[in-house]
Amino acid sequence: MTPDAPNFGEDMVTAARVLAALGMVTAFGHVSVRHADHVLITPAIDLAEATPDTLVGIPLDARTLPAGAPGEAWVHLAVYRARPDVDAVARAIPESAFAAGSVTSRIPPLHGQGAMLGEAVPVHDDARLMRSAAIAEAAVRTLGKADALVLRGNGAVTTGCSPGHAVARMWLLDVTCRLHLAARQAGASRPLTPDEIASWRAAAPPLLDRLWAHLRRTTES
């Protein structure tokens, strides 16, 4: 952790452990937060075992990753460099994202809460591990202005103003992918309209707070 960092540790560890308890990660996955010109990220360990002392600091302009950082930390750096509105990133591997990412290139919201991921969730058509700046930057170009990205064959990335919001969006992404798959099987679907999406997105911050509190309570009990 960077020596001058505020106490982000407990928030990040809570987010990491909730993500693990939700079954969105196995031995792989990470959570990060922006702090000034650095990123704090969970190390390359099981997220259920993360502690504040294990967090790794990475300069935003890093050209190499420090010891202990996950190999795909590049995607976190790429998001922060491209999106000044983002302060936290979650990287996970919900099984529904593998399925949805294999059948489409774009996942429109079918329910209001799904709109909190963006006008649609893009699918990045590259299943390689994002273990280089170039591969990660290409994925972030696909992300664009959305708050969630499905990586074909490689899980998903979500963003937020806090680690809790990023994890809440990962849970919503799992729901969105499962609804998309069910709707495809049932036949024609009816996505939300642009006005409906805008309305839900405007209401998102307090709703994400409530969802995050619910996820914490249900996984910690």
TrEMBL record:
GO terms for cellular component: cytosol. One of its GO terms (biological process) is pentose catabolic process. GO terms for molecular function: aldehyde-lyase activity; metal ion binding. Pfam families: Aldolase_II (PF00596). Transmembrane segments: none annotated. Residues 10-181 form the Class II aldolase/adducin N-terminal domain. Keywords: Lyase, Metal-binding. The keyword Magnesium does not apply. InterPro entries: Aldolase_class_II_sugar_metab (IPR050197), Aldolase_II/adducin_N (IPR001303), Aldolase_II/adducin_N_sf (IPR036409). This is Decarboxylase protein. It comes from Streptomyces bingchenggensis (strain BCW-1).
